[in-house]
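Data card: per-record layout.
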Amino acid sequence: MYSPSEENYIKTIYSLNPGTIAVSTTAIAERLQTKASSVTDMMQKLADKRLVNYQKYRGVQLTEHGRLQALKTIRKHRLWEVFL
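The structure for this 84-residue chain is written out next.
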């Protein structure tokens, strides 16, 4: 189980680029309206959980497990939208 914050970061990375191109931490920070340093901290946490491949100054990519988790999160959020 992942925290809502982790799910939002994973979902944001997927929405910015569902493919294999790396997403910059700046783009993630702009989308989530947060500081780039906060994004960097979270990317390191997600990398420890093997959800993303993160390299400093090169951006971040979802792993296969991260991509599947992003799709599950998007599906869960869409289901909640239908009920609400």
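Known properties of this structure: The helical segments are 4-16, 25-32, 36-48, 64-83. The first helix runs from residue 4 to 16.

See the next section for split statistics.
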